[in-house]
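so my prof wants the structure for this chain in the tokens format not the other one, which i didnt know existed until like an hour ago. anyway here's the sequence
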Amino acid sequence: MDYKSVIAQNLSKISGLTEDQIFKLIEIPPQKDLGDFAFPCFILAKSLHKAPAMIAEDLASEASLTSDGVFTVKNAGPYLNFYVDRSKYASDVVSGINKYGDAYGSSDLGNGQNVIIEFSSPNIAKPFHVGHAFTTVLGNSLSRIYAKLGYNVIRMNHLGDYGTQFGKLITAYRLWGDKDALDKDPITELLRIYVKFHEEAKKDESLEDKARENFRKLEEGCPEEKELWQKFRDMSLVVFNKLYDRMGVSFDNYNGESFYSDRIPAVVDMLRSKNLLVESEGAQVVMLDEYNLPPCIILKSDGTTIYASRDLAAVLYRDETYHFDKNIYVVGTPQALHFKQVFSVLKKAGYECADDCVHVGFGLVKFKDMVFSTREGNIVLLEDLLDAAVNKTREVIVENAKARGQDMSEEEISDIAEKVGIGAVIYTYVKAGREKDIVFSWDEMLNFNGNSAPYLMYTYARIRSIARKAAEAGITASTDKEVLGRLTGDDAYAVISALAGFGDVVKKAAQIYEPFVISRSLFETASAFNSFYNNTRILGDDISKEDSASRLALCEAVGNVLKSGLGLLGIETVERM
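here's what i got, hopefully its the right format
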């Protein structure tokens, strides 16, 4: 049963508001003694010409009459508080979750709608560092969340594979490139010659002219320059895809900036035909004074393209190809102005799709008491961070296994360490609001008792261990609603309350582009479950069969929600730790 919908239906009959209006206003009270759901009556004050507290008092008795025994309704100040029948609530929530398993939280909300999510988008020929991981983790999670809600998700990796830097790379490779080094470790070799180019260009200004000439040839499609560019791109993708595979990230499309280069003339012609292009200091720009934004450069003074011109071409291509309902850019907050300009140019040009484009920004990455022997100076490579997390996790798992006398093979230890270590890194990016800066700390990342992936994964593993012990004893989780109705104790009810809102949590995460909503819900659920576990025996000869069966069902429901939620964050579960 959808309890919020029942409340909305009942109140709509006696308040004059629509079900949708009421549903959006229903709250979860901060304290349990204030009920399970609450409706603020402020919105009715104007139409009813009464104080909200008086309205709540008048509605309380009428709401009780229409609740069919599902709720007890009380007024408290300007609020109507709804107290759910615990027995019915427990049986509905637990049976509903276990019916769908780890698919719980799915819906057909987005059926028939196309959502493009652009994320990761590293620069070709440059190292994949921890900053790139923010967009990668966030975009991967949002992709999974939207897919869970039934949207057709198109995952786009808009590679940084174009621009004047490739003229520099081509020039540098011809002068100082080492083919064997490139074949062995392409990113390191390409970075070496790129850095060398800038060092040498300080002494020889003609190198910049050669680089511009090589980029011009690349734009014109000259075979030699294009062949080198393609080689650099293909080699870089091999390296990137190893990281993506390791993190469980996939894409439907790798169209980078280069893909749209031959579509830019049509964009320029379109803007010119609408009298939107003006010359400014030799460059071609679109003025955006009416949006309180600076001019958007479309073509530089030398006639070459810029990020904005390529992004405009990309939006128009995506609209034409996918007819998207939403086009989401998961790109750092510093690029907010750039996207405002691009979307405003489209709006000024009369394209309705501009209103369906969204920039999802995020903060910076910092480190606390973490030392890396990075291979690239002050750049912390993601691969190094993942390796360090996995190695440290492995040490903890081996130590814990010895302490508990667990017999674990090397293969199992390695598999668990890999999943938990990578999960710990991923969770660090989504454990707080995306616009907050990320501060990495080993103590926090690998804390098995705090707000971390290891804590959530250990809780799941604990539940699987309970299920194995129950199976050995011949006890199974109940599906009988009467038996499930026995879960009325405070500890069990706290778990059930935490579980009940998971479907709404997934929808909210999509609505505000915020995986943190899910990570917070999972932590609250795991915390409530562990309190229940510590205070309640689940198996034992002195426990009735019905109590064990109902408590096992609750464990199963928690496991299903944890697996579903962690999966939405991009984290795999493990059966034991």
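also thought this was worth mentioning. Residues 382-569 form a domain with the Isoleucyl-tRNA Synthetase; Domain 1 fold (CATH 1.10.730.10).
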